């Protein structure tokens, strides 16, 4: 039996909730070419190591950071864990804490568990952004890190990053921005989110999400290279002397595809994509609103709407890959593969369900 040949990977024509997308053709090609390389061993694989430097340089341009340092991680989870690790290592406290809004990604929970730091979760305001007063009252001299999210997973919101930076500095803590998803759309908005806007120390920004690279290509950026020293361990059996990554052997495919995607798309291609995705999100939000659903305004290309559970289940039964927020709203992420036609077909299915639900049951039924 040839199990792999018999199974087709899913296509994207009904995928509405993923934060990953179809890689750009040049990113797919680069991933295939560099499949058998390992940037974790730069002494043996110098070409891909050079490409990784290029990836960091391009990510720095996207994120407003001159002279950037960092590496291409397995994803946003690893980058977030490493940011917490840097902050813990840098902190003087023996009982360090991390302060994060409740909109922060669950990867910080993993980081806190692994690194044995206290995770202090503060509420968000009515617009789903970090409540600054709550953050202020939560930090103290043991705070090692304040986390702000630039493009939240559930509502696409951007926390007040410069203000969070001021709060972090007031207690000598670091500021981490999680722009895992938002990093490739925010350059085309008025939001203040990056290294040039605020005293950001570390950032997660993932090419394998809106950056249209192949998985796995996450990104960790640090304001100065010495921050990576907090992560570095000696590597006795390799030609290189130390390693700052969490994983050892890593995917050269992710690195090469990140470079290929960014070279092809930064900045104009990403700008065009942002405009397309944002227009789609606004179109969907309006279509849902017209049908009487309560919609969270899509300030980035992500729509959340209060749709009854039964409707949600019926849409999933029709093959739509949709998900729900923690409070139960339907959540649609307008990734590059999400076209207007897909959304129109989705709304068409929703309308058919509604018609069926509103047909009165008669004694003949
Ligand atoms: C804001 C944010 N941070 C981190 C992550 C985790 O990224 P990954 O799944 O690549 O580990 C996600 C995933 O969706 C995310 O939305």
TrEMBL record:
InterPro entries named among the record's database cross-references: GrpII_AminoAcid_Decarb (IPR050477), MfnA (IPR020931), PyrdxlP-dep_de-COase (IPR002129), PyrdxlP-dep_Trfase (IPR015424), PyrdxlP-dep_Trfase_major (IPR015421), PyrdxlP-dep_Trfase_small (IPR015422)
Residues found modified as N6-(pyridoxal phosphate)lysine: 209
Pfam family, one: Pyridoxal_deC
UniProt-listed GO biological process terms: carboxylic acid metabolic process; coenzyme A biosynthetic process
GO MF entry, a single one: aspartate 1-decarboxylase activity
Keywords: Decarboxylase, Lyase, Pyridoxal phosphate
Involved pathway(s): Cofactor biosynthesis; coenzyme A biosynthesis
SUPFAM superfamilies xref list: PLP-dependent transferases
Superkingdom to which the source organism belongs: Archaea
Catalytic activity: L-aspartate + H(+) = beta-alanine + CO2
Cofactor: pyridoxal 5'-phosphate
EC primary class: lyase
EC numbers on record: 4.1.1.11
Chain's role: Catalyzes the decarboxylation of L-aspartate to produce beta-alanine.
NCBIfam families: tyr_de_CO2_Arch
Family from the record: Belongs to the group II decarboxylase family. MfnA subfamily. Belongs to the group II decarboxylase family. Sphingosine-1-phosphate lyase subfamily.
Protein name per Swiss-Prot or TrEMBL: Probable L-aspartate decarboxylase
Organism name: Natronococcus pandeyae
Gene that produces this protein: mfnA
């Amino acid at each position: 039996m040839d199990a792999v040949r018999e199974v087709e990977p899913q296509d994207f024509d009904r995928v509405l909730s993923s934060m990953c997308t179809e890689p750009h053709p040049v990113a797919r090609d680069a991933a295939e070419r560099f499949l058998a390389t390992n940037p974790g061993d730069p002494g043996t694989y110098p070409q891909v190591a050079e490409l990784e430097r290029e990836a960091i340089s391009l990510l720095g341009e996207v994120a407003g950071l001159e002279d950037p340092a960092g590496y291409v991680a397995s994803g946003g989870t690893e980058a977030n864990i490493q940011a917490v690790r840097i902050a813990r290592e840098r902190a003087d406290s023996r009982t360090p804490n991390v302060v994060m809004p409740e909109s922060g990604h669950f990867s910080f929970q993993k980081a806190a568990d692994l690194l044995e730091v206290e995770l202090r979760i503060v509420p968000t305001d009515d617009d789903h952004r970090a409540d600054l007063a709550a953050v202020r009252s939560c930090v103290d001299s043991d705070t090692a890190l304040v986390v702000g999210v630039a493009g939240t997973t559930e509502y696409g919101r951007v926390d007040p990053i410069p203000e969070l930076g001021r709060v972090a500095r007031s207690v000598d803590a670091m500021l981490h921005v999680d722009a895992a998803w938002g990093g490739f759309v925010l350059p085309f908005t008025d939001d203040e989110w990056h290294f040039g806007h605020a005293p950001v120390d570390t950032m997660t920004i993932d090419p394998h999400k809106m950056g249209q690279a192949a998985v796995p290509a996450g990104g960790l950026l640090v304001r100065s290279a010495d921050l990576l020293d907090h992560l570095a361990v000696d590597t006795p059996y390799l030609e290189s002397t130390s390693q700052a990554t969490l994983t050892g052997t890593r995917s050269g495919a992710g690195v090469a595809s990140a470079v290929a995607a960014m070279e092809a798309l930064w900045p104009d291609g990403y700008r065009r994509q942002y405009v397309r995705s944002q227009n789609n999100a606004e179109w969907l939000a309006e279509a849902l609103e017209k049908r009487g659903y309560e919609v969270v305004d899509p300030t980035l290309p992500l729509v959340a709407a209060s749709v009854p559970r039964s409707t949600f289940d019926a849409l999933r039964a029709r093959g739509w890959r949709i998900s729900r927020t923690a409070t139960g709203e339907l959540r649609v992420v307008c990734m590059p593969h999400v076209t207007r036609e897909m959304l129109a077909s989705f709304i068409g299915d929703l309308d058919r369900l509604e018609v069926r639900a509103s047909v009165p049951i008669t004694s003949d039924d």
